[in-house]
């Protein structure tokens, strides 16, 4: 079993209990651990895989709480750092369909320092670049780019999820696109929402989006389509894989559950090159990942709603 390194933010999601889709009027919030890379790390470990989190939290009580949550979920946090800056927070409201609207209060996540000693650990393993805040500047962006270069120089399977958040980029989507291109160009696996695929490709139809993104360099592409399932695309073949029907209450972390399950399956292979050559194998993997993503929407909170191995593979 290969180890999956997940780099980026670990934060607190404060989810509004009332005043649906109106953060300004919300008075009561529930505290939930989150952050896309942390969610992915937990998704992998909860399925029985090996994950390692690389990121920074504050030296405050929230930071301690978050690291304990990861430990409780069997995520290796020996490479996590503590910063004097406060732990990053996100405030989230949900509408009746479980769709989210959120605002970041950024803190310790951007203080991650690059550690050159980690490079050798990447060899023959998987590195997932899926942080929502990694391209926003600060030390995190520098560390993120340097870890990506390290992954390129090792025998490392590289996964990328841009995790675009419109509120974070405002009118700078052109900057976001430019910063994503090297990751798309050099990653073995790229996971996009339909919105991200359209933004990064300039196309509308999912298949057209995938063709453009393949031209940039991505080898295997998955575009999540919500209740319609997932478009699986290689440079030779495309297919939409249906998902299962569930009673959705909160979509927070669904994409992370999906990519976490997919990476868990890839990590279980003797050789990651297998998936580049076997579309039928990829199809079966995406079916399981769809199931994991769907199950994660049936409860509140990202990490607490992640399914275990039995739910995904034995049901």
Account of the 3D structure:
Helices cover 38% and strands 21% of the residues. It is an alpha/beta fold. It has one domain (3-313): 3-Layer(aba) Sandwich (UDP-N-acetylmuramoyl-L-alanine:D-glutamate ligase), CATH 3.40.1190.20. The chain has an 8-stranded mixed β-sheet with strand order 4-1-9-10-11-12-13-14, with helices on both faces. Strands 3-2-7-8 form a 4-stranded mixed β-sheet. A two-stranded parallel sheet has the order 5-6. It is globular and about 50 Å long.
**How many domains in all?**
1
Low-confidence stretches at least 5 residues in length (pLDDT < 50)? none
Give the biggest beta sheet: 8 strands, mixed
CATH fourth-tier homologous superfamily: Ribokinase
The span between the termini is 23 Å
Q: Calculate the mean pLDDT score and round it.
A: 92
Number of strands: 14
Q: Which structural category fits the helices and strands?
A: alpha/beta
Widest sheet: strand ordering: 4-1-9-10-11-12-13-14
CATH architecture: 3-Layer(aba) Sandwich
* Element-level helix/strand string: EEEHEEHEEEHEHEHHEHHEEEHHHH
Give the overall shape, derived from the CA principal axes.
Answer: globular
Quick rundown:
The protein has 315 residues and is of the alpha/beta class. The protein has 12 helices and 14 strands. The chain has helices at 36-46, 61-72, 119-122, 138-153, 166-169, 173-186, 194-201, 206-216, 254-267, 274-277, 279-296, 309-313; strands at 3-7, 11-16, 29-34, 50-54, 56-58, 81-83, 89-94, 100-105, 126-129, 157-160, 189-193, 220-224, 230-233, 238-241.
């Amino acid at each position: 079993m290969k180890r999956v390194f997940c780099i980026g933010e670990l934060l607190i999601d404060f989810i509004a209990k009332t005043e649906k889709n109106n953060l300004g009027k919300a008075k009561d919030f529930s505290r939930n651990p989150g952050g896309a890379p942390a969610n992915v790390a937990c998704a992998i470990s909860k399925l029985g895989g090996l994950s390692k989190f690389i990121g920074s939290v504050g030296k405050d009580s929230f930071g301690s709480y978050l690291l304990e949550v990861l430990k409780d979920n069997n995520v290796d946090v020996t490479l996590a750092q503590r910063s004097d800056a406060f732990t990053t927070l996100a405030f989230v409201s949900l509408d009746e369909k479980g769709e989210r609207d959120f605002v970041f209060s950024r803190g310790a996540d951007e203080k991650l320092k690059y550690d050159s000693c980690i490079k050798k650990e990447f060899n023959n393993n998987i590195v997932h670049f899926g942080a929502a805040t990694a391209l926003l500047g600060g030390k995190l962006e520098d560390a993120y780019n340097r870890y990506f270069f390290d992954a390129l120089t090792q025998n490392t399977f590289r996964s990328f999820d841009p995790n675009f958040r419109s509120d974070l980029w405002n009118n700078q989507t052109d900057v976001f696109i430019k910063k994503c291109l090297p990751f798309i160009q050099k990653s073995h696996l790229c996971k996009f929402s339909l919105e991200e695929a359209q933004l990064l490709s300039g196309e509308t139809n999912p298949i057209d989006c995938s063709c453009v993104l393949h031209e940039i360099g991505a080898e295997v592409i998955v575009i999540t389509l919500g209740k319609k399932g997932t478009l699986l695309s290689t440079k030779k073949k495309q297919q939409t894989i249906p998902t299962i029907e569930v009673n959705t209450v909160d979509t927070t972390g669904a994409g992370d559950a999906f990519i976490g399950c997919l990476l868990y399956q890839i990590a279980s292979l003797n050789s990651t090159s297998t998936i580049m050559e076997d579309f039928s194998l990829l199809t079966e993997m995406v079916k399981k990942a769809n199931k994991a993503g769907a199950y994660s929407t049936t409860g509140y909170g990202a990490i607490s709603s992640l399914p275990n191995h039995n739910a995904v593979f034995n049901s």
